[in-house]
Specification:
The protein is an all-beta fold. 2% of the residues lie in helices and 48% in strands. A five-stranded antiparallel sheet has the order 25-1-28-27-26, with no helix packed on it. It has a five-stranded antiparallel sheet with strand order 2-6-5-4-3, with no helix packed on it. A five-stranded antiparallel sheet has the order 15-19-18-17-16, with no helix packed on it.
Length: 402
Amino acid sequence: MKIMKRKITLFILAALLLWTASAVQAQVSVSTYAGSTAGYTDGSLSEAQFDQPQALLFDESGNLYVAENNNEAVRKITPEGTVSTLTTEKIYWPFQMTLADGKLYVMQRAISSYINQIDMTTGAVTITSYGSYNYSLGLCSDAAGNLYVSDYHSIYKVPTDTRQKTLLAGGGSESGFINGTGSAARFNYPGYMAIDASGNIYVTDGENHAIRKITPAGVVTTLAGSGTAGSADGTGAAASFNRPSGIAIGPDGHLYISESGNHTIRKITLPDGVVTTIAGIAGTSGNDNGSGASATFYTPRGLAFDAVGNLYVADYSNDQIRKITFTTTGVANAAADKEYSLTARKGEIAISSPSKINVQVYSLTGAAIYNSTLSAGSHTIPIKQGIYLVKVNGKAGKVVVR
């Protein structure tokens, strides 16, 4: 196989970045990516029809998967823009999806909730034996392949070894809005989840109108929101949400949230918890494309980033997939003048630097692959074939390993 090399300086990384430094401003533009009116039609992006898309997920080849409520289906959109149905088997009320161990897992919320496993080649669906649940919405996985489920008022971990659910945090059937560790913490219908390189889980706590953080040890804190519905931007508890739903970690390392109650898309910077509205008009539903400030959504839910940093939105009540692009203006931080050599080779990523750097590698599904601070000099990171997001000192870019 031909070895493909890419040498990336921080200038190129900065060009791939959506947000490189405080001096750089991101202009937001919203368009319709796929879908029109409610229906069930495969084909091109303009021909395809969806019915209440719930969740989105990219695989490492750039295919976008769409879980649909009314069609009880999982659809696949190729990078070339062809829409097909992944499986002919019905998946009742599919919600969040994740990739682990090369398999696609889908949370099914019916009378009882189960984790479905889909063979991505044949489309065969298997109901796993990873525990039954009551009211599950969220599903994510870490780099080790452990699964995490938000169910009723709790978060469960499904380890790779036993594949039996264990309580990570929450009070089971008892709701509330309490920070704490493990079973001492309380949620109120936690929803979709995202996991960072350190294994911290961020969850949209829907009826608490808040975004919560759970450490690998089960310590729960509130990142933003006060428990009262609203639409205010601000920091931490000064910000307010109205039924936050979808969540994704962007290539800039910050959180992006969809709000089904406000019909907006919000951004939360980490670790300080500063909340801003990037697209949509709070309290106004619609289907308008345009700038972030003028665009409208109708009950947006699942979110997913592609390899170059575009954000896709499952616009539930519009039966469409919307696309948010970010165009940077201004001058990047002068620190980008330093040259860091990064080369994608067969089975590894090689990087050299004149000074100490932090390197993080993510799969396109958001799973953390690597996170380490490297000393000055040359280093190699063993990695399998695929497309990855690589962050060097917080600056992100796409790398293809052949």
